[in-house]
Amino acid sequence: MAAASVSDKGDMEYSSTKSTYDSDAHLYAKAYYGLTFWKAEYRTFLGLLGSSGRIIDVGCGPGRDTEYFTKLGYDTEGIDYSAPMLSEAKRLAPGCKFTRMDMRSIKFPHGSFDAAWSCMSILHIKKADAGAVLDGICKVLKPGGVLFISVKNGSGEHFDKRLFSNYREPELRGLVGRHGFRVEMSYLNKKDPRQRIVCIFARKA
Fold first, then answer.
1. Which residues have CB under 8 Å from 59's CB, separation 6+?
2. Which of 33, 37, 141, 177 is most buried, taking the most CB atoms under 10 A from its CB?
3. Based on the structure, what is the number of domains in the chain?
């Protein structure tokens, strides 16, 4: 779950999204930490990555996926801009690495990671800003680095305390392909009973 940037003082959608996660971090952690329907995506992602590597969990929220990869032996670091959400992550996943960071300004050296996992986080970024986020992720990945993105299936942007940017599968494939990646696989995940989710697996071109 992504949060807004420190530079967005005048941007109501981003500031409200951040405030919502800050205020209700414990509730979101309780709701999302135990979800298990990403097992197939974990397998595919790690199958593309291999048996070792360094992973950045972009918009890690309460740290569920950071902990999962860390326990399997992957050097994983979760980033999120919401300090209260990271407090929940540190409580729920002690011993894992978390850094407070805006995904639109990722502050790691180029080529720092072998893979990037972005589960239901880029959906909180305006479509006008999504390309810059992908460019930043691309820079911190090594050549051939693996990328996973999931977003809600749909079209356009909407706002109700939180900003949501929804994508159809062809639109997201095109976006990823224009920003330094070669799409390996994409599909519509229907396992979540509450919503349909577009999943993309790609490699740095």
1. 1, 2, 3, 79, 80, 103, 118, 119, 120, 121, 122, 124
2. 141
3. 1
187 found inside a domain: yes
Count of CB atoms situated within 10 Å of the CB of 177: 15
Give me the CATH number covering residue 79.
3.40.50.150
188 part of a folded domain: yes
What lies within 8 Å, CB to CB, of 170 at 6+ separation is none
Nearest 5°: the CA angle 98, 141, 119 is 55
- CB-based contacts of 11, cutoff 8 Å, min separation 6: 4
In whole angstroms, what is the distance from residue 165 CA to residue 188 CA?
16
Q: What percent of the chain has pLDDT over 90?
A: 82
Element holding 5 (H helix, E strand): none
Which pLDDT value is given to residue 37? 81
Whole-structure pTM value: 0.92
Q: Is residue 66 part of a domain?
A: yes
Which residues, including other chains, have CB under 8 Å from residue 129's CB and lie 6 or more apart? Answer: 104
- Cβ atoms within 10 Å of 13's Cβ, excluding its own: 19
Q: What's the domain range around 147?
A: 12-204
Question: For residue 4, is it within any domain?
Answer: no
Q: Which tens digits make up the pLDDT trace of 15-28?
A: 999 999 999 898 98
